[in-house]
């Protein structure tokens, strides 16, 4: 295995994508240095990268929000929810998604018209079949009323 060359402060700052003054601050937090106490700091890149990753892991764990999510998880959730919201808006604009209130209005109107038509059936049948007795027309009206009442008791969860 080839030995890893030691890097100076500017080089290690470049590797970590930070400024050189930040490297000095990180030394105070425990950034490993091969020649502590000497001028012209040198750093083993493997040890520094491992220390950096461990530090980021500790920070991420420590930054958990009350909901149990760290900053990265919170951002991921935000972007996921934002994408869902945009998809919902696009579906509404393109007509592939209809608001529940509109569906409710349309269904209420349809049910009202169906009820009106059902209520009219006994008298229409009596006109079309004049020889029906009143008790037979009443039987038809009763059956229609039972059916209407059963339909009126239906709820959305019954249909799903």
Main beta sheet: strand number and arrangement? 2 strands, antiparallel
- The total strand number stands at 2
Roughly what percent helix? 55-70%
Beta-strand residue fraction: under 5%
Radius of gyration: 38 Å
Distance between the termini: 65 Å
CATH architecture descriptor text of the largest domain = Orthogonal Bundle
Give a verbal description of the structure.
The protein has 160 residues and is mostly helical. The protein folds into three domains: 6-62, Winged helix-like DNA-binding domain superfamily/Winged helix DNA-binding domain (Arc Repressor Mutant, subunit A, Orthogonal Bundle), CATH 1.10.10.10; 68-97; 100-153. Helix content is 69%, strand content 2%. The chain has seven helices and two strands; from the N terminus they run E-H-H-E-H-H-H-H-H. The protein has helices at residues 9-16, 20-28, 45-62, 71-93, 100-128, 134-152, 156-159, and strands spanning 6-7, 43-44. The protein has a two-stranded antiparallel ribbon. Helix 1 (9-16) packs across helix 2 and helix 5 packs antiparallel against helix 6 (134-152). The longest helix is centred in the last third of the chain and has 29 residues, at 100-128. The radius of gyration is 38 Å and the shape is rod-shaped. It starts with 5 loop residues before the first strand and ends with a helix. The model has no long low-confidence stretch (mean pLDDT 81).
